[in-house]
Amino acid sequence: MKKEVESEIEDELCSEYDFSHIQGGVRGKYVERYRTGTNLVLLDPDVAQAFPNDAAVNEALRLLIQVAQRQQPNTAVQRTE
After folding, report:
1. For residue 64, is pLDDT > 90?
2. Which residues contact 60 (CB under 8 A, 6 or more apart)?
3. Nearest to 57 by CA among 36, 67, 34, 65
4. How far apart are CA 44 and CA 50, in angstroms?
5. For the chain, what is the radius of gyration of the CA atoms?
């Protein structure tokens, strides 16, 4: 015989807890601190396959920064004919 699955999720909190009377709570109090310490980026599947971990991504981006910095002086030179 199969047990019937309850269709409603059972509430584990007691009914005497009334959170509307709690004072001092601030929604999002630590959100700015969290955001400054966290930098998550979602990679597309093809990019994630090429870079198996965060160290590989960081290394590739540092190399890209170096190449871009080397190219900057060349783009500033204008031709005069």
Report:
1. yes
2. 51
3. 65
4. 10
5. 27
SS3 (DSSP) at 3? coil
- Nearest CA among 75, 47, 46 for reference residue 61: 47
Q: How far apart are CA 32 and CA 38, in angstroms?
A: 10
In this prediction, what percent of the chain has a pLDDT beyond 90? 30
56 vs 47: CA distance, rounded Å:
11
pTM above 0.70, yes or no: no
Distance (Å, whole) CA 34 – CA 37: 5
Between CA 74 and CA 70 the distance in angstroms is: 8
**The dihedral sign for the CA sequence 13, 18, 20, 23:** negative
